[in-house]
Design goal:
By secondary structure, the chain is mostly beta strands. The protein has a domain of 79 residues: Immunoglobulin-like, CATH 2.60.40.1120. Helix content is 0%, strand content 29%. The chain contains no helices and eleven strands. The chain has a four-stranded antiparallel β-sheet, with no helix packed on it. Strands 1-2-3 form a three-stranded antiparallel β-sheet, with no helix packed on it.
C-alpha cells in the first residue's frame, strides 16, 4: 500500500477542504479512497473511506471499516499498511484480477479469496474453548484479540512472525497456558487451539471445637 500525502502527487491524494486526507492505494491496479485525519475543526472529527477499482460500477466494494494497522516495514522493499483481523478488505478481492503476490511478495490468496489492496493478510487462528477470551500476542508491540461466541479467534500477523499467544479470562485456566509459534509464519496458520477449564471455588464450613 503506497500513500502519496502531498497534494497533487497522484489523482485522488492530498487534503481536501474538509480536512480529510485522500490517499491512493496502488498494487498494479489503482484503487482510491479517503481516510480521516485530525482536522482543525473538531466538528469534522469523522472518518470517511471508500474503495473502488477499474471497471467497477462505483458502489463501494467495502461496506464496513477496513481496520488498518500502521504504516511500517512488514517485509518487502517498501512500507505497507497491514490489514488487521476482522478487516472487511480480507477475502473480498477479485481472484480473477488480483496479482499473484502482494506488494511484499506474499502469495495471493492466503484465505478463501484475495485481499483488497497491497497487503495480503497472514492470519493465525484457532479456538480458545470459550467465548470472550482475551488473547495477547506480540507483533511490533502487544496486541489483543477476543474469541467469538463459539470460542474461535483469529489474529493478523506480519510475514515471518514468531511469538506467543496467551489466553486469559476470569474464572478460567487454559491448556496449554500459551502457544509458542517458533516457525516463521509465511502462510495462514490454523488449528492453534486451547482448552478452557472452569475454576471452581469450594467453601468449607468452619467447625469450632
Amino acid at each position: 500500500m503506497i500513500i502519496f500525502p502531498a497534494k497533487g502527487a497522484v489523482k485522488g491524494s492530498g487534503l481536501d477542504r474538509q480536512g480529510f486526507l485522500k490517499v491512493a492505494v496502488l498494487n498494479k491496479k489503482t484503487f482510491s479512497g479517503k481516510f480521516g485525519v485530525s482536522p482543525p475543526n473538531p466538528n469534522r472529527g469523522r472518518s470517511r473511506w471508500s474503495v473502488t477499482q477499474p471497471g467497477h460500477s462505483g458502489t463501494n466494494i467495502l461496506t464496513s471499516a477496513p481496520i488498518l494497522g500502521t504504516l511500517g516495514n512488514y517485509g518487502g522493499f517498501t512500507q505497507t499498511i497491514p490489514l488487521l483481523a476482522g478487516s472487511s478488505a480480507i477475502d473480498t478481492g477479485n481472484d480473477t484480477t488480483c496479482a499473484t503476490t502482494d506488494q511484499r511478495g506474499v502469495m495471493r490468496p492466503q484465505g478463501a479469496h484475495c485481499d483488497i489492496g497491497a497487503y495480503e493478510a497472514l492470519t493465525v487462528s484457532g479456538n480458545a474453548g470459550v467465548a470472550g477470551v482475551s488473547l495477547i500476542y506480540n507483533d511490533g508491540g502487544a496486541k489483543p484479540a477476543t474469541s467469538d461466541s463459539g470460542g474461535s479467534y483469529m489474529v493478523s500477523v506480519s510475514t515471518g512472525w514468531t511469538s506467543t499467544i496467551t489466553p486469559s479470562k476470569t474464572g478460567y485456566i487454559f491448556s496449554p497456558a500459551l502457544i509458542n509459534i517458533t516457525t516463521p509464519v509465511t502462510s495462514n496458520l490454523t488449528g492453534q487451539d486451547f482448552t478452557a477449564h472452569i475454576i471452581y471455588t469450594v467453601f468449607l464450613p468452619l467447625v469450632l471445637r
